[in-house]
Design brief:
The complex is a heterotrimer of chains A (271), B (306) and C (345).
Chain A (H helix, E strand, L loop, with lengths): L8 H30 L5 H7 L2 H34 L5 H13 L2 H12 L6 H7 L7 H12 L1 H14 L2 H8 L4 H30 L2 H7 L9 H10 L3 H30 L1
Helix pairs in contact in A: 1-13, 2-13, 3-7, 3-8, 3-10, 3-12, 5-7, 5-11, 7-10, 7-11, 8-10, 9-10, 10-13, 12-13
Chain B lengths: L4 H8 L12 H27 L3 H9 L2 H34 L5 H7 L2 H4 L2 H12 L13 H26 L2 H9 L4 H30 L2 H7 L8 H10 L3 H29 L32
Chain C lengths: L2 E10 L2 E11 L4 E5 L6 H9 L6 E6 L2 E2 L5 H4 L1 E4 L11 H11 L4 H14 L15 H14 L4 E5 L7 H18 L2 E6 L2 H7 L2 E6 L2 E6 L1 H6 L4 H7 L3 E3 L2 E3 L4 E4 L7 E11 L2 E8 L4 E7 H7 L6 E6 L2 E4 L19 E4 L6
Parallel strand pairs in C: 3-8, 3-9, 6-7, 7-8
Antiparallel strand pairs in C: 1-2, 1-4, 4-5, 9-10, 11-12, 12-18, 13-17, 14-15, 14-17, 15-16, 18-19
Helix pairs in contact in C: 3-4, 3-5, 4-5
The chains are: A mainly alpha (271), B mainly alpha (306), C alpha+beta (345).
């Protein structure tokens, strides 16, 4: 460490105390407590709660959300990134802005707007009612909400990577006779895969954890339209703490796996 | 993967660059626009429509309801306090993660993203367990305005850290060495050299954090509750929906949305302002800092011009 | 302000960057630290500045031991290869930075900054930002910035390394002239021996963390202490145990007792000088440097058999002792024998 680094030992420890103390108190302490509280009375109560029919259904529903929303947003994300970076189309600034909207909108507002669009007095209602498709208080609506909130991640993580690798490799491929699809599949995609993977992980985490928007469009009907986060809320409201904690711990474990995946991928990209 | 001199060109003039497999640019754009319209624009249009469904007078009436105003005020002030606090701590943490070495650093670096990964309702639950009535620490701030602030601190910390980190990593150490050789001490170097170069990232991180804080719902719900004086706008809107007052909910939503969008625009401007000293390409919104995964390959080329 | 370094050692992990290095830089001189990558020259320079701390040894500036002093107190001006411009400040603010933190008043700062900008011929660009300048302009700004605070010593770390060949040559001349005007003790690091010989009065050749030799350009060229110095500072041919410079290699058409047979392999014209590559009977490849006139006189062709008569040949007895220490006075080469060696087969 060069002599000019400036912080004497005292201020360095001061900074560490402030920064690390803050992280400890704000993030780590609560996290640790929830694990403790969940298993305070043994493994049985939380496991019972989660493996109840409602709990299992909630878990299943959450995973269905992920299974539908993530691939859709991934395909969209890659395609959109290609469009924005490789083809300077007109209006890409607008597209760019719209993609970032989900960051600016409260989940409740997202839920509300879907509610208004597909609800009983909504725009699409008559047509949908005729076709017998139910959006609200049902899985499709929840999927739409999940897609909305997790829209930006794959695009945003793919765009910088696409920019950085440049077009030279792709140009080389076409001089060697590869068509667009081959070039994409064999040259571009492998080059951007860690960026895409990271975006996918972020998308998954977001969909898993989505609460506000889904809460509005689903009605949180137990055993039917209740995802795991909604299950947590319901259990808590019914004073069923082991249930709430159990589901929370499960979600926390999923979150920690996500963190792990994020870190591994970050390192892959830097390598 | 370092920045490639050809990269700047390729964004401007895509010649033999990859075509969207199977589709041309026009069709591609059409598909993207369709996807975005169905998923994002239409719902927002419905929202706007509903908010004005009773006319402008009704809109105004809904928005100026006492509780609407109260909750908005609380939301704005709490968000402001939160971003200032996290601006401070976030910068310190970014500094520690980039310039310092200590045992467990990798763990801390990973844990910073916890609020991104954890469902907000779970965050609310764990906060209320630690800082609520049954708190092992004996601190009870549940159902209070402080709770609002703490919940928002929790969910917005990563934004600032991850926005500042890449700038610190990328920072030219030699600038600091040059300043030292000219006689500047540690704090002066930070104040005059490091901080000004962090400012664009810090501003962007703060703006993103602010936008997030404005709309935050899940983490505040259980911890701060829905009492009149601890009700943030998103909780108020939810209440309006449950009471069937959809027009009112839509109206307040529009106001909240406008505030957040304004924030995003400011972020974009902050980025452009920050890049004014670089010769590299301008920053689009999609380059906004988010998590630590930034391919920040913007090296200043050492080229010579006549 | 003379500079003395005694017994400096520094390692980075397993890598030994400096190994018991001692040099002496006379007051007011312009010295070059010359060597290949990894030779430790930049580390040595940064140690003098205080940007690296030594594991052992000490640094003296003007007879004062500054080894424990932090950079900010050493009053050394430092110029970096990549300029280290404060990119968020204008040229004016960059150059005036050192003065501002010394709390000079505005009028004085302005006067001094403009004086320096004129000196480096950047006057009129005071309000620009570094990103708006060319590489050469940025480096001149960096120099002005370092000189503004009237440092005791000026240190430059490969200052022209990031620049175009032509710009490099121009700035080289410019630096030399500047030094003649200002007489600040100056040390600069380079891997380009031509640059070192063009600019500096004293050269210190380093290799693998040690000083191989120090002296004037002529000393090093004509009396190299060992093979490394000889081949680093100029071109060499190796003939058995001896080393010959290509321009000391005479090419003749008739043999005598001092010549060696060689076949012309290739003739290349490089500007005004000609490089002729030969292969000897035993397979050794050598080359000679001729002028166009000489080439025309000999009428050499590819494949022709001619005779080489080596002029001044040097041989070094075994491994030359790395002469790390001491004075900068011109020294006769140790262990190198000047001889008109009759080329053995």
């Amino acid at each position: 460490m060069s002599a000019h680094s400036g912080s004497g030992s005292g201020s360095r420890w001061g900074l560490r105390f402030l920064g690390l103390g803050y992280v400890f108190a704000l993030l780590l302490l609560p996290l640790g407590l929830i694990f403790y509280k969940t298993f305070e009375h043994g493994l049985a109560p939380p496991i019972d709660a989660i493996t109840s029919p409602d709990g299992l259904h909630a878990l299943k529903l959450t995973l269905i959300m992920v299974a539908i929303a993530v691939p859709l947003n991934t395909i969209f994300g890659i395609g959109c990134a290609l469009l924005l970076v490789r083809h300077r189309v007109r209006g890409s600034g607008v597209i760019d802005a719209i993609i970032n909207l989900p960051f600016a909108i409260s989940p409740i507002v997202i839920g509300l707007s879907l509610f208004l669009l597909y609800g009983t007095k909504g725009w699409f209602e008559p047509a949908l009612a005729e076709a017998g498709i139910k959006i609200l208080f049902s899985v499709p609506g929840m999927v739409l909400a999940s897609i909305f909130v997790s829209l930006p991640f794959v695009v945003r993580e793919t765009v910088p990577v696409l920019q950085e690798i440049g077009t030279e490799q792709e140009q080389a491929a076409s001089t060697l006779g590869a068509n667009a699809w081959q070039t994409f599949w064999r040259v571009t995609l492998p080059a951007i895969r860690w960026g895409v993977a990271y975006g996918v992980v972020l998308t998954t985490a977001r969909v898993l954890g989505e609460f506000g928007a889904v809460s509005v469009v689903s009605g949180s009907i137990s055993g039917q339209t209740q995802t795991l986060p909604l299950f947590v809320e319901k259990q808590y409201e019914n004073f069923n703490l082991p249930g709430a904690f159990g589901a929370s711990v499960l979600l926390a474990l999923l979150a920690l796996s996500t963190l792990l995946a994020m870190n591994v991928l970050k390192r892959k990209e830097d390598a | 993967m370092s920045a490639h001199p050809a990269t700047a060109d390729s964004v401007e003039t895509p010649r033999a660059g990859i075509r969207l497999p199977g589709v041309g640019a026009g069709l591609g754009r059409g598909l993207v626009v369709l996807y975005l319209s169905v998923l994002v624009l239409l719902p927002l249009a419905a929202l706007t429509d509903k908010s004005l469904s009773g006319g402008l007078g009704h809109f105004w009436e809904q928005v100026t309801q006492p509780q609407a105003v109260n909750s908005l005020e609380l939301t704005l002030i709490a968000s402001l306090i939160v971003v200032l606090i996290n601006g401070f701590f976030g910068t310190i943490l970014a500094w520690l993660l980039v310039r310092d070495e200590f045992p467990g650093k990798a763990v801390v670096n990973a844990v910073i993203d916890l609020p991104f990964a954890l469902p907000t309702i779970v965050a609310s639950l764990i906060l209320i367990e630690l800082w609520g009535t049954k708190s092992p620490l004996g601190i009870d701030i549940a159902l209070s305005r402080t709770a609002v602030v703490v919940a928002l601190l929790f969910v917005t910390l990563p934004f600032v850290v991850r926005a500042v980190q890449p700038l610190l990593i990328e920072m030219d150490r030699e600038m600091e060495e040059a300043a030292a050789s000219l006689g500047a001490g540690g704090f002066t170097i930070f104040r005059r050299i490091i901080f000004p170069n962090l400012l664009p990232g810090l501003a962007a991180g703060i703006a993103l954090a602010f936008a997030r804080a404005l709309g935050e719902f899940g983490s505040v719900l259980l911890f701060a509750g829905g009492l009149p004086e601890t009700q943030v706008s998103s909780v108020y809107i939810k209440q309006l929906i449950e009471n069937g007052n959809e027009a009112g909910a839509a109206a307040v939503s529009i106001v909240l949305l406008a505030a957040s969008v304004l924030m995003l625009v400011l972020v974009s401007l902050a980025q452009r302002w920050g890049s004014r000293h670089e010769r590299s390409s301008g920053a689009g919104l999609t380059n906004m800092p988010m998590s630590g995964f930034e391919s920040s390959g913007r090296e200043e080329d050492d080229d010579e011009r006549a | 302000m003379g500079i003395t370094v005694e017994g400096a050692s520094k390692s980075f992990g397993d890598f030994q960057a400096l190994n018991d290095v001692s040099i002496e830089v006379p007051n007011g001189s312009l010295t070059a630290l010359l060597g290949p990558s990894g030779s430790g020259k930049s580390t040595l320079l940064r140690a003098i500045a205080g940007l690296e701390t030594l594991d052992a040894g000490r640094v003296m500036i003007d007879d004062e031991d500054v080894s424990k002093k932090p950079t900010q107190k050493r009053e050394v001006g430092f110029v970096f290869q990549h300029y280290a411009a404060f990119k968020h400040m204008t040229v004016f603010e960059n150059v005036g930075f050192g003065l501002k933190i010394r709390k000079w008043d505005k009028a004085k700062i302005s006067a001094r900054v403009h004086e320096l900008l004129q000196l480096v011929q950047l006057d009129g660009l005071a309000d620009r930002y570094p990103s708006q300048l060319s590489g050469g302009q940025r480096q001149r700004m960096a120099l002005a910035r370092a000189l503004a605070v009237e440092p005791q010593v000026l240190l430059l770390d490969e200052p022209f390394g990031a620049l175009d060949a032509k710009v490099r040559k121009d700035l080289r001349t410019w630096l030399r002239n500047l030094h003649e005007e200002m007489h600040v003790t100056t040390i600069f690091v380079t891997h380009d021996q031509e640059e070192a010989m063009d600019v500096a009065g004293q050269l210190v050749v380093m290799n693998e963390g040690r000083v191989e030799q120090s002296g004037s350009a002529d000393d090093l060229y004509d009396h190299p202490a060992n093979e490394f110095v000889m081949s680093f500072v100029g071109e060499v041919n190796r003939l058995g145990d001896g080393f010959v410079r290509p321009h000391d290699m005479d090419v003749v058409l008739d043999p005598d007792e001092r010549t060696e047979e060689a076949m012309v392999q290739r003739i290349v014209a490089l500007g005004f000088e000609i490089r002729v590559e030969f292969v000897l009977a035993d397979g050794t490849e050598v080359w000679a440097q001729l002028t166009r006139a000489e080439l025309q006189k000999l009428e050499l062709r590819q494949g022709q058999i001619v005779y080489l008569r080596p002029g001044k040949t040097k041989s070094f007895s075994g491994d030359s002792p790395p002469d790390g220490g001491g004075a900068s006075t011109p020294r006769d080469s140790r262990g190198g024998d000047d001889a008109e060696v009759s080329a053995a087969a």
